[in-house]
Amino acid sequence: MNVGEQLKNLREQHNMSREELAQQMNVSRQAVYKWETNKGYPDMDNLIRLSELYKVTLDELIKSSSTLQPKVDNKDSLIKKDISEFNLEGDGNSFFRYGLMCSVGSLGGLSIPILKGEVNLSIIFPFVIALIAGFLLLKSKAIRWDEIKLKNVKWVSRIVMAYLSVPFSFFSISIIQKDSVNFFSLYYLLFIIFIALALYIYLRRLYIKHLY
Predict the structure, then answer these.
(1) Cα(64)–Cα(51) distance, rounded to whole angstroms?
(2) Number of H helices, E strands in the chain
(3) What does the alpha-carbon distance between residue 42 and residue 181 come to, in Å, rounded to a whole number?
(4) Residues 74, 65, 38, 145: what is their CA dihedral angle, to the nearest 10 degrees?
(5) 34: which of 39, 77, 178, 183 fits an S-S bond (Cβ 3.0–4.6 Å)?
């Protein structure tokens, strides 16, 4: 019996539907479905909550799983790995965190030319690289997508749209300073809006892709 079958049997023994379990665990029904079909695995916190809910030990909960047992046996090493510094090999979590930071953080820096009224490549080049790096990091197959990451992507996609206030503010300041509309700033503002929309769509597609 694999871990998915074990979790399904325990749920059915307690006369619970997937919806009821999802509510008690504060996760989506899709997450419960993935656990029980071996398309995803509960993290350590959820494993502990499941063992308490079903009144079984962690060992009993995953004793038939060859994939989860090593993860539980090496809980300390997993925690240390999760908080370790970013490296090229990555553990999935690092790729995810730095991917989001690079993608969203670059928007503010790329907005600087709106205020200046001209492009200074030495200023925007690092932010262009950061934006590209963010896209590539978030595409990494090493990322272990779970409920928490999906919620983060959902909220960050909304923050991206709110972040458009930065270039709009820069454009307003530019008009006040020069007492006229700089058409370069206007066109560049439209460019930043396009970049933000592209990033928003990309994050939403990531969310939908890994939700099911």
Answers:
(1) 14
(2) 13, 0
(3) 55
(4) 0
(5) 39
